[in-house]
């Protein structure tokens, strides 16, 4: 039976994951002091993985248990209205989940000392699940893609989140404007969305223990170094006054701890494909974590499951369109970690206009048309170049 629900929640639940951004009215207010605008690389690969892990709760043969148990395990995950009017209309099947499901996954670079309106979303992923609910596709949108941001003209798409968060919009406002921008650009409407924050993310990976990551090209970290054999952020390492040894990710496949997997997946400089290689590495991490969660017993062990969801509650804000998380999970129970297909935009290369600005290629726009028509499998079969080279 399809899950029936109104598209948008009538009110927002307090987001315990981001207490510093709440006000008494339930919205995350603008910071009291304007911080300087940063243009640094984002702090993490942003997985959006935990949402992938949530999806996998009921995957495969073994289901964790009843909806009551799943509701108990996921109760700490904050929920909010992240889509606004970019959610699917009734004509698009917006009041049930028996058709294709499209999710917007956003990763943000944020620390508590930063104002909530001074954050951009540099990881933007569209998750498409066909009406058969037995497969999932990940499509990354390049952060520098030129887009028409409603009310703000043409700019890099990652600025949409920051614009929406300003003037009291908070992170919900940022996500809503991002969703609206992507809908205007691609025509894709969404069933739900998730915002992932770096602050609590390492705990999620550590709960899983490690993930298997394949490094396709040796790269030195732009963000971390070893001090006395321990990995540290460069800014903290410099404060010690001790010798710093660069963290280098060697070519090959291996099990990585949380800090190493996140650091590798956020590298952009030093890679042949720059941000496009980083997109593929981020997708690889999502798949690796979802696969680990389904294969090591985490999702069939109530104790491990609760640990994972507790960590998720500190890193995630989720919008499933008013449907309970348990109902959403049971609807998606046919998807497993092995069923995640990673796709790339622009053939994995920078696609520029005559004046050097990045835009989506005609083939990429056709791919989003296939998402709207729920014919992505046929499109991928006819255009294998869109498949990511990462496994």
From TrEMBL:
Presence of the UniProt keyword Membrane in the record:
yes
Q: InterPro entries, from UniProt?
A: LytR/CpsA/Psr_CW_biosynth, LytR_CpsA_psr
Domain of life assignment: Bacteria
Which segments cross the bilayer? 43-65
Task: Give the keywords, sorted.
Answer: Membrane, Transmembrane, Transmembrane helix
Residues of the Cell envelope-related transcriptional attenuator domain: 120-293
Annotated stretches, region: Disordered: 1-37
Q: Which ranges are annotated Basic residues under compositional bias? A: 25-37
- Family, per entry: Belongs to the LytR/CpsA/Psr (LCP) family.
State the PANTHER family in the record: POLYISOPRENYL-TEICHOIC ACID--PEPTIDOGLYCAN TEICHOIC ACID TRANSFERASE TAGU (PTHR33392:SF6)
Q: Which protein, by its recorded name, is this?
A: LytR family transcriptional attenuator
Organism encoding this protein: Micromonospora olivasterospora
At the highest ranks, the source species' classification is: Bacteria, Bacillati, Actinomycetota, Actinomycetes, Micromonosporales
């Amino acid at each position: 039976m399809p899950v029936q629900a109104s598209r948008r929640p009538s009110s927002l639940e307090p987001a315990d994951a981001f207490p510093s951004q709440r006000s008494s009215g339930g919205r995350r207010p603008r910071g009291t002091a304007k911080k300087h605008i940063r243009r640094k690389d984002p702090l993490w690969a942003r997985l959006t993985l935990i949402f992938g892990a949530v999806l996998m709760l009921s995957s495969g043969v073994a289901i964790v248990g009843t909806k009551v148990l799943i509701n108990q395990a996921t109760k700490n995950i904050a929920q909010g209205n992240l889509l606004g009017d970019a959610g699917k209309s009734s004509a698009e099947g917006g009041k049930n989940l028996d058709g294709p499901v499209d999710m917007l996954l956003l990763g943000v670079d944020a620390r508590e000392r930063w104002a909530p309106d001074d954050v951009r979303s540099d990881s933007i992923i569209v998750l498409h699940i066909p009406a058969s609910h037995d497969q999932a596709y990940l499509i990354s949108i390049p952060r520098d893609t030129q887009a028409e941001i409603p009310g703000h003209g043409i700019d890099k798409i990652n600025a949409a989140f920051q614009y929406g968060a300003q003037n009291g919009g908070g992170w919900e406002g940022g996500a809503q404007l991002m969703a609206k921008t992507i809908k205007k650009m691609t025509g894709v409407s969404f069933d739900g969305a998730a915002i992932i924050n770096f602050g609590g993310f390492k705990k999620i990976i550590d709960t899983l223990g490690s993930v298997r990551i394949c490094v396709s090209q040796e790269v030195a970290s732009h963000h971390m170094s070893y001090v006395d054999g321990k990995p540290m952020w460069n800014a903290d390492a410099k404060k010690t006054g001790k010798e710093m040894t660069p963290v280098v990710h060697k070519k090959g496949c291996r099990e990585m701890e949380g800090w190493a997997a996140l650091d590798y997946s956020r590298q952009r400089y030093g890679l042949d494909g720059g941000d496009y290689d980083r997109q593929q590495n981020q997708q690889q991490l999502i798949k690796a974590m979802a696969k680990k969660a389904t294969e090591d017993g985490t999702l069939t062990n109530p104790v491990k499951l609760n640990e994972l969801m507790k960590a998720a509650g500190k890193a995630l804000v989720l919008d499933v369109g008013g449907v309970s998380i348990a109902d959403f999970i049971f609807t998606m129970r046919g998807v497993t970690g092995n069923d995640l297909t990673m796709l790339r935009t622009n053939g994995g290369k920078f696609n520029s206009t005559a004046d050097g600005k990045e835009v989506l290629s005609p083939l990429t726009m056709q791919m989003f048309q296939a998402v709207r028509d729920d014919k992505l499998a046929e499109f991928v079969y006819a255009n294998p170049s869109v498949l990511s080279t990462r496994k």
